[in-house]
Sequence to fold (476 residues):
Amino acid sequence: MEAPVRFIDAVLEPLLSGANRAFEAGSVSEIVTGGEDECAFLVKVITGLARLQGGKILLLGHDPGALSREALGGIRSRMGIVHPGGGLISNLKVFENVTLPLLYHSAGSGREIGERAVASLERFGWKGDLFELPGRLSAFHRRVAGFARAIAVDPEVVVYDRFVDGLYAEEKDLFLRTAFAFHKEKPGRVTLFVTSRGGSITGDEPSIVVHLTKGRFE
Amino acid sequence: MLAAAGRTATQILLFLGEISLLVVQAFRESPGFFRRGFRPVFRVYLKQVYFTGVEALGIIVSLFLLIGILIITQIISFAGVGSAPLTGKVLVWIVVRELGPLLTAVIVIARSGTAIATELATMKLGGEIDVLESLGIPAARYLIMPRILGVATAVGILTLYAEVVSVAGGFLAASLAWGIPLEQYNQGIVPFLTLREIGVSVFKSLTFGLIIAAVCCRQGLSVEGSLTQIPQAATKGVMRSLLLVFLHDAVVTATVLS
Fold:
């Protein structure tokens, strides 16, 4: 079975200098970079937002650089990105944020989609207002809503960007427990924790810890 | 100096090219959204029509009621009560041909143009455009297309309202102040309110809407890095929209009259 995320001689200076790595189906990996900017940049590469200067990256078997916009959108709809600040759209309410990718990509009824969104939020014991704008939420609740949005689409690849940075111990436990439990819910799901703080992903240990050093995975 | 003029001309041409491209892109996106993303994109479109059209209705109605009253008062006080043909001609020329689309566009620029530029600039600086793309939702389809088509729809409808209200305001003044009956008032208006006049007005209002939204979207999305650029984007959006709308109005009017 083809690795869902594979770097092949990937070059994008100064982040990648001929990086090679296959993140196999079902694996949980922690990618440790040299800093926060590198984390953000690497996530852009993985989602196909940053174009490589050389080599290629295969996402779910496809090279994002060779795909049409529609096809790339289809690939991205099978991925879930958990952004460090939640990554919510500021003019949409919490409920609208969580349902947005589902409404855009799926043909399910509005009711079904709404129920999925609420179920995703309830995994975190959400007790806040579903119809609040992100600007009025606490930083933690914004992150919860962003996490719930990623979970709701039931992705094949989940990328956690600086996942536990800035969280209190209890919040960190909740997030990690949920992330590992979510990983096990779908066979073959790939989970990537991109962080600049090695060893911050605790609990169920990641099966692979990769360091991105001098542009290469080690 | 020649080099500077050349650079400015190139910048203007590039800017116009970008605006045209955004409008073309909006139309090219519109069939695609029926296949994917119809529900959220249509919601953005409706919100834009509501914000630009419905919420501006009060100010448009009040303003054009007063304009209708003022124009009729001026004409009758100048030409006398028996000047029905002149009254109609001037009202149609001023309101339907020019003021209806133009003033509506100016109000929309002030209300929605600034809002669009500010909103998109804030989203860009907050990394929300990248977030949308990472969700597989193209910004061109989710953010730009519904705004451009929404503003064009709203300006078109608002202009129609503005013109109807203005003519009604004129009748109100003529009837209350000079006792002119509806029949006589209509005789002055209807012969001059041809399909061509209405068509030009609709064309102008729709294209004004496209220009306003495209310019403000472009300005909002052009910010890079600093929060201080947000108000600058809004100001530039307003100024450039105004300039282009007036320029376009002059070109269309000159073309129609010639």
About this structure: The interface with chain B takes residues 43-44, 47, 49, 69-70, 72-77, 79, 81, 83, 87-91, 100-101, 103-105, 110 of chain A (CB under 8 Å).
